[in-house]
């Protein structure tokens, strides 16, 4: 779990669908969406605007921070696309861009009567300055150590929403955490949701113990370890899936699925190859319906539906996943007789599969060859 997640609490108001007001100009920004001229961008009007905010009594760090914010924003967008690839899709955050395709960062200095240490006061002051479009989600980098992160206002489809970050949390994963809140993550009713709009199946950018009570929603390592601990919906079952299977929670709750947000583009680095295969245990009783995806850089991801039939002679089945890091078994507890489970596999140099009887601790009767 990321360092920043251990030191702050986030307030997120309920996000529900609402009608979209006409686009209004975003104050302080000469930039517009660069449309198809920039890679990953499109002509969509709903965008995320980055803002650097300081008090007029503080040093101006804009020249230093603008390129850093651009880098953080691109890291967030890459993490979103990496999650999309696991489910066979492509997504990027649609930021307001400069003509050179860098992320536009508005530069705002607030006069001393405005309390820079009060995130609501900062948001109100920005709205009074014209940052009030319903077609904007705002990520605000406030030059204050008074708070780490907080998100408020807006709906799933409209803004203005405010993802606020104090200077102690100017990191890409903190920015991603708050922006994902502004985009709709995580419903308390999600399979691994918490009342504080987080999750407990780690490692995930949205998961942490938000009530400081280890016995209520303890973090559990239910997701595969990837290159980064800050995966976006590490099992793609709580708040992000570009193609949720019929009957799953995200399929039944599209307004809780950030992958459907109108503030994202579908112009990410989607798969360049897709292959599917049914893998069975050595003796009849379970099947895994596996789809592999290869990205432009050669890395692989995958998703699978594992089904153990009601007439299976064994109690459960477990999917063996072989990557360059070794072999692991998911889900660790296995899929019990008469049930099904959906899993995703993060990006790896290579990925192969077998289906076995049992679970991660006790397995046998695996598929004869890897696929």
Question: Could you characterize the architecture of this molecule?
Answer:
There is one protein chain. The chain is an alpha/beta fold and 371 residues long. The chain has two domains: 3-221, Collagenase (Catalytic Domain), CATH 3.40.390; 273-364. Helices cover 14% and strands 28% of the residues. It has four helices and 17 strands. The chain has a five-stranded mixed sheet with strand order 3-1-4-6-5. A hairpin with a 2-residue loop joins strand 13 and strand 14. Helix 1 packs across helix 3. It is elongated, with a radius of gyration of 22 Å. The two termini are 32 Å apart.
β-strand percent reads 25-35%
Distance N to C terminus: 32 Å
Compute the CA-based radius of gyration: 22 Å
CATH topology of the largest domain: Collagenase (Catalytic Domain)
The biggest beta sheet, please? Answer: 5 strands, mixed
What is the typical, i.e. mean, pLDDT?
Answer: 88
- In the CATH hierarchy, what is the class of the largest domain? Alpha Beta
How many domains make up the coordinates? 2
Q: Please list the strands of the largest sheet in the order they lie side by side.
A: 3-1-4-6-5
Strand-pairing-aware structural class = alpha/beta
Number of strands: 17
Task: Write a brief structural summary.
The protein folds into two domains: 3-221, 3-Layer(aba) Sandwich (Collagenase (Catalytic Domain)), CATH 3.40.390; 273-364. The chain has a five-stranded mixed sheet with strand order 3-1-4-6-5.
Observed structural traits:
five-stranded mixed beta sheet; single chain; elongated; 4 helices; disordered N terminus; alpha/beta; Collagenase (Catalytic Domain); four-stranded antiparallel beta sheet; 2 domains; 371 residues
